[in-house]
Amino acid sequence: MALAAETLWTKMLAQVLQNSVYSFAAILVVFLLSLGLGGILSHVLVRLRAPSTKFLILLLASAAILIGISPTVFSTVTNGLEYLAVNASWLTYIWSVFKLSLIVIMPPTIILGAVFPFLLKAAPTIHMPSGIIAGKLVLYNSLGGFVGPVVAGFVLLDLVGLWNSIKIIAVLYGILALLIVFPASGKKKIIQLLLLVALIFGIFVLKNPPLVQLKTGEKVLDYWQSSDGVVSIIQLAGNLEMRLDNFYVLGDSKSFLIEQMQAHVPLMIHSAPKNVAFLGLGTGITAGAAFNHDVENVVAVELVSNVVTATKRYFSPWTNGLFKDKRAHIVADDARNFLLGANKKFDVIIGDLFTPWHAGTGSLYTLEHFEQVKKRLSPGGIFAQWLPLYQLTPENFNTIAATFAAVYPQVTLWRADFSTDRASIVLVGQEA
Question: What distance separates the 2 farthest-apart alpha carbons in the chain?
Fold first, then answer.
């Protein structure tokens, strides 16, 4: 269950972090360090030579409490889910991630790290061969390490959401403490049972902190939670905005014309686009703009399935009939997997504006990805990859452009806006 908690804490911290590989690495370092300190704590507890059952109940109850209040602590420390270290230097940002992880996840993880080694060390005091006990403990721990993260990340998040998933893990630790107390007898048993029941009840009724931070005048119309993240629809002065994990804006209704241009530019470059693929759906405005051209088939591939649901429910008025037109096909899948498995070829493939430093996104700028896209192009087809200049350093851009040019013999660069602070350009590649 410790790894299940770690999985959920990582999702929790994603609500205020940039979610780069550095963020995950910093969280992992703190988690592993805390598990090590938990091992030291278990050694100290065993040397005290107090009844092992007493200490085990204390550890499990402490774990339940600290896990249960971790969302509240997290919300308090981040001042209601404020974005961490905005515009900070790399070192400052990493240090901020470490500090947040130390405060929020280190205390409960130290307790979690003490439980298993404490059981191993206390095994010889139980009236059963220590080898059998140790073997069973290792077996159960290994099974839990495999099943826990899978259930937490792919089942609980989809069923009950982030905060309630963390509560469930906390309650399970409380139930384990109850099971240990139950076989006992006497007045102490009754007192301990009542305390643990009160603890479990307290965790259940503890108010969940907000999941989306709002600025003045903003209102949450709807949100969805899953292993892919938290997708929310925010309204402000007539504008609808879609966010992923609190801060990643996937598009909004006021940017209607700009988002349409991301389709118009590539489709006007090709002489006769019939089959078009969009790698990334977002608000659906860009994909819907394709129907202003003489297209026969439009495929939009979106990694986050809840984005498709949110787009259909709230952005249909701006998508030019995307969800009603028989020429449209919406696919909830990873763009790379879709390209690998697709048998069809396209006249135009358009890559969305991908956040370069987001964990996993870098693969969409690799030589291998560009080559795979090229294989899915019809003769004379073009690939258009949009780039957010405001999120790229000159070195980043030069690397991506050089990689792109290594795959496509003819590359042109286009711009579809006159923005000074959020400029974006598109690299268009094709055979010479």
Answer: 87
Residue 241, φ and ψ in degrees, nearest 5: -130, 135
User: pLDDT digits over 225-241, tens only?
Assistant: 998 889 999 999 889 99
Tens of pLDDT, residues 301-328: 999 999 999 999 999 999 999 999 999 9
Cα separation, 108 vs 24, whole angstroms? 18
Sheet harboring 410-415: ordered strands across?
A: 328-332, 297-302, 275-279, 346-351, 377-388, 424-430, 410-415
Q: What distances in angstroms separate CA 113 from CA 37, 98, 180, 188, 269, one per listed residue?
A: 7, 19, 19, 27, 59
Half-sphere exposure of residue 14: CA atoms within 13 angstroms, side-chain side: 24
Cα distance between residue 393 and residue 400, in whole Å = 11
Instruction: Give the closest residue to 10 by CA, choosing from 88, 93, 79, 109.
Output: 109
β-pair type (248-252, 239-244): antiparallel
Alpha helices, H only, 78-222: 90-104, 106-122, 130-151, 157-160, 162-181, 187-205
Residue 272 near residue 347 (C-beta atoms within 8 A): yes
d(CA 214, CA 428): 37
198 burial via Cβ count (<10 Å: 0-12, 13-18, 19+): exposed
For the chain, state the CA radius of gyration: 26
CATH hierarchy code of domain 249-430: 3.40.50.150
d(CA 415, CA 423): 8
pLDDT > 70? residue 186: no
CA distance 332 to 309: 10
In the chain, where the domains are located = 2-205, 249-430
Both tokens assigned to 162: 């982030």
Q: DSSP per residue over 314-377, as a string?
A: HSGGGTTTTTT-TTEEEEES-HHHHHHH----EEEEEE----TTSTTGGGGGSHHHHHHHHHTE
Distance separating alpha carbons of residues 141 and 4, to the nearest angstrom = 12
Instruction: Give 96-124 as a DSSP string.
Output: HHHHHHHHHTHHHHHHHHHHHHHHHHHGG
Number of Cα atoms under 13 Å in the Cβ half of residue 192: 24
DSSP 289: G
HSE-up of residue 139 (Cα within 13 Å, Cβ side): 6
Q: Do residues 284 and 256 touch, judged by C-beta distance below 8 A?
A: no
**pLDDT for position 140:** 82
Local structure of residue 309 (DSSP, 8 states): H
SS3 227: coil
Say which residue the tokens 């790698």 belong to.
279
